[in-house]
């Protein structure tokens, strides 16, 4: 408490929150002033995974703060980041989250497109993109039977679409309804642990659509399948070319599968089930659609 008081410059009362058991669960401390006002939030990294996530969010908030004046959405302000008691932490300001029921999808789409271009946009062939090299390296390191179909899918994608140029920009990484609100029309977005630069524009939009489908009651498989017929419209909301939709979706699903397997190996948890039950079938469908026809 003495450390928190010194950092925040006032008396505070802490309340520790722990969410449901999941790979990235970590203590979140809410600091309140004696009069009950929320003053700050602090995330604490307690495992290798959560320590990396906490450090990454601190760096992301620093970068976003430099661009805040040009963004059409608000993010928490980085207050402090460092180590205490051998654990790392990130402390951030409180933002007005309002009510999720008031979420304006139009404003959220505008914010998503704004973020994509905030740090610059480049266009590169899939086969020569740094994000693709990183993904291939991660796939090569994965173990277990489920990793092989992902590696095979990557080979199919680069074989059929490797020369396709995709626009790359910034992505939140978990652009989902529970990480944002529009309390006064202006979007507020938090939880920047998976922020990335120079990844395909459209990944955030696909992620949002899948998670919105899940929140509407669809199962893991149906949530992904529902994106296939409308993927051109979905990626366009993010500022991507509609004709690139299938290739962007395939790359997103391969990346998602790799993340799921990597997280499972670190935490021994399998929340959505085997990839063969929900991710691989729609991935095969979109890759089949990308294959040239016999007479084409």
Summarize the structure in words.
The chain is of the alpha+beta class. It has two domains: 2-93, Phosphorylase Kinase, domain 1; 100-290, Aminoglycoside 3'-phosphotransferase, Chain: A, domain 2 (Alpha-Beta Complex), CATH 3.90.1200.10. The protein is built from eleven helices and ten strands. The strands form three sheets. It has a five-stranded antiparallel β-sheet, covered by helices on one side. Strands 6-7-10 form a three-stranded antiparallel β-sheet. It has a two-stranded antiparallel sheet with strand order 8-9. α5 (147-161) packs parallel to α11 (280-290) and α9 (245-267) packs antiparallel against α11 (280-290). The protein is globular and about 65 Å long.
Key words describing this protein structure:
296 residues, Phosphorylase Kinase, domain 1, single chain, 11 helices, Aminoglycoside 3'-phosphotransferase, Chain: A, domain 2, 3-stranded antiparallel beta sheet, alpha+beta, 5-stranded antiparallel beta sheet
